[in-house]
Amino acid sequence: MNTSEPKDALEGSVVRRLRRLLGERLLTDPADRWAYGYDNSRQQALPQAVALPDRHDQIVELVRLCAQQGIPLIPRGRGTGTTGAVVPAQGGIVLSLEHMRERLEIDPDNRLAVVAPGITNQELQEAASEHGFFWPPDPTSSAVCTIGGNLAYNSAGPRAVKYGTPRENTLGLQVVTGTGDTLHTGTRTTKGVVGYDLTRLLIGSEGTLGVITEATLKLTPLATAKRTLQATYSSIDAAARAVSALMAQPLTPCALEFMDAQAIAMVRDYSDLGLPADAQALLMIEVDGSEEAIDGDAERIRTVARTRGCLAVELAHTEDEVARLWRARKALSPALRNVAPKKINEDVVVPVSHLPSLIDGLQALSQRYGIPIVNFGHAGNGNIHVNLLLDPEDPRQSAAAEACLSEVFSLVLGLGGTLSGEHGIGRVKQAYVGQELSPVALGLMRAIKRQFDPHGILNPGVGLPEDPSPD
Amino acid sequence: MNTSEPKDALEGSVVRRLRRLLGERLLTDPADRWAYGYDNSRQQALPQAVALPDRHDQIVELVRLCAQQGIPLIPRGRGTGTTGAVVPAQGGIVLSLEHMRERLEIDPDNRLAVVAPGITNQELQEAASEHGFFWPPDPTSSAVCTIGGNLAYNSAGPRAVKYGTPRENTLGLQVVTGTGDTLHTGTRTTKGVVGYDLTRLLIGSEGTLGVITEATLKLTPLATAKRTLQATYSSIDAAARAVSALMAQPLTPCALEFMDAQAIAMVRDYSDLGLPADAQALLMIEVDGSEEAIDGDAERIRTVARTRGCLAVELAHTEDEVARLWRARKALSPALRNVAPKKINEDVVVPVSHLPSLIDGLQALSQRYGIPIVNFGHAGNGNIHVNLLLDPEDPRQSAAAEACLSEVFSLVLGLGGTLSGEHGIGRVKQAYVGQELSPVALGLMRAIKRQFDPHGILNPGVGLPEDPSPD
């Protein structure tokens, strides 16, 4: 869609300095560079060079060189983001952090981990689990996505409903700012009020304020037992009432996932999953805790989930049954790909009680624009993945999709929601940010950006929309 | 100690404009003003005027007037802070937010509350509990301290070990910046990644970046059952091992409070509490959960607390027993006041595993300087209240106390800790901030301060130390 032409090559003197700094850790061949010019959006652009440092001091020198030369620098994990935030649309050097893997220290006594940014989420989880701990953020891409990327996007996942996002699970950061200065934020402790909270400011800033070169993460003890339930409802309202009821009682589920009628219809076409014929909404619910308490807890959840309009609540008793119950949810992504190779996937959030209004509104938009919309996601946070399914054969649909999307965001904001719960802004949602953030907020954010990155080299054109009237 | 002379009165024209804006909500009589010139530190200064607005728009106008005239504005809750952060040492207008009480809305379906800043912590807890919820931050002063103050200081309390501080329990803020602009931060949802996280930046900024006029708070369901345990140990090391063991297992206590040998000796002198004669450290442990699981959970905690060196673990079975077990901890504050009317109370934090080194180091400093030091606090967070007991009859002790305090902070930072876990910097700890924060961090924080408050009117002289070499 937005594939840019290859930018001019870097000046020879710059390449020589980069080569001296990085040796073989610099890619200049176009064939090599293309592999670092994309993410999981449909955007791609050719970087002028790719840097693959494995040490903090190399990054310091690289940032200083880029600041001096005014070269854009695009920090990148494994490219699993969905917003084009790591696509070098303005040219520049992609700074791949995948080789920053030296440190993965688990400190169980202090419930923390110190991690280099190129460690994957799964590697961290495996190391932590040996000590009986985990790090709560669990994006779908956890097998390959990096901790640095998780922090840059504030990526969460299903467990956030009980355990929070990276902002609630990070103690401190080591960062290289846009001037090449090394900044340490936060503490190694779970309390600390000395100075302003720069840790959370950097988390979710999409590489626009600094390059994270190390993180101190708060670990949480692994629960020893888990139970899985699947509940089906005759209407979206009934399911939403169940979500509210589940969130209003003391036992917070560790996953509370949702599929609407369109999503159910789609997986039902795809394979027979034994769901009730009149199911209009489905909840996947997981609870975790101690072996002694878990069965009582699961029964309590089952009782709460049985609101008016509930068709069935199935509680898995074996691993096979757990797998069977998850099958409908897991069938969704391949089904979506099969049915609609071209789709727009948003991850809006509304207050939980407004989920029925959101889904009703989305159905109305779907009918008005003639675009199928399939919704599923993290109901406990009100975080819904809204999928507009486009016909790749119909080029006129693009304009309709744009107009529909704008109305989706208006609907969300009108319900007190936010444009994105975990994907972020990147390059694809900038046009809509002004609908959510006021000029006062944007002005302060731009001022902060200028302080952290006075030369404007860190991921330019990503995150905050350009100031239409810069001073 | 640091009592300032009354500042000159405000210009007549300014007073007239303030009177027009605030009517009777402006105090100009010195006798009235004195009551707003102190906090729970030993500092006091006479404000030039006191504003008592009850509406957001009045605060907007007040800030604009102060910005235009260059008059310091000191936001104040109920003055329960301990760092002099609300003492108008540079003169100016104290902005008391105690009458900003119009809004206290509990939204159980969305697990949130929308609260005006003058509502007290206890009022919020009572309103939330009617719906089965609570807001985790619980400072000792919760009966009188305000939500605005809790947010300005990031005040926590014992429950933070399980439920976090205000930074983990706040969704969004309405703020008036130093230019009189109204800023909305965050969302009404538990996920949101649109723009930089200004919510956490403002929390804990001690009124130096903006005046909080409304907050959207994340509520947590009340547990239905709680159990209280008291464990005593033959050494501080044994108690610290128990803390580590308790924090390494899946069941996180909702309170894990600590008293050292000096603290035990002090309450033992004060009244007979039936503690073992050789108790050198004491832990108060609380667990919460469901009625069905709580007794099993309490037994598991008891087992874990019985590390080598444990003398006894008592588990309360009745309300009377709970009160009896808490008696030692509750006797501490009056005992401290009786023994040492003059004391320096710090709230340092170290990683939990370094608690023994911290206490050992503090005992060595106590002996070297001839100053008794009593330690207690929130062990689960490594947050220890360090009390230097001074002899009010000995004026020479002040210099020794200053030197000792500086060494306390060096000890804490050497152990990977932080100067303050919940009290903050205010006016009393600024001299030490440079030991913890680097020039890079301080430079960015000062730049952020200038963006939020370009006229430097919001709580000048508080928080960040003055820049020795401003540009």
Description:
2 copies of one chain form a homodimer. Chain A is α+β, with helices and mostly antiparallel strands and 471 residues long. Chain A is 36% helix and 21% strand. Chain A is built from 15 helices and 18 strands. In chain A, the strands form 4 sheets. In chain A, strands 15-12-14-13-17-18-16 form a 7-stranded antiparallel beta sheet, with helices on both faces. A 5-stranded antiparallel beta sheet of chain A has the order 5-6-10-8-9. Chain A has a 4-stranded mixed beta sheet with strand order 1-2-4-3. In chain A, a hairpin with a 4-residue loop joins strand 17 and strand 18. In chain A, helix 1 packs antiparallel against helix 3. The first copy, chain A, is globular and about 70 Å long. At the A-B interface, strand 9, helix 7, helix 8, helix 10 and helix 15 of A face strand 9, helix 7, helix 8, helix 10 and helix 15 of B.
Task: Name some characteristics of this structure.
globular, homodimer, 15 helices
Q: Strands of the largest sheet of chain A, in order across it?
A: 15-12-14-13-17-18-16
* Sheet with most strands of chain A: 7 strands, antiparallel
Total beta strand runs of chain A: 18
Question: Helix count of chain A, per DSSP?
Answer: 15
Mean pLDDT of chain A: 93
Chain pair forming the biggest interface = A-B, 96 and 96 residues
Radius of gyration of chain A: 23 Å
How much of the residues of chain A is beta strand, in percent?
15-25%
Q: How far apart, in Å, are the first and last alpha carbons of chain A?
A: 33 Å
Low-confidence stretches of chain A: 1-6
Helix content of chain A: 25-40%
Class by SSE composition of chain A: alpha+beta
- Report the principal-axis shape of chain A: globular
The oligomeric state is homodimer
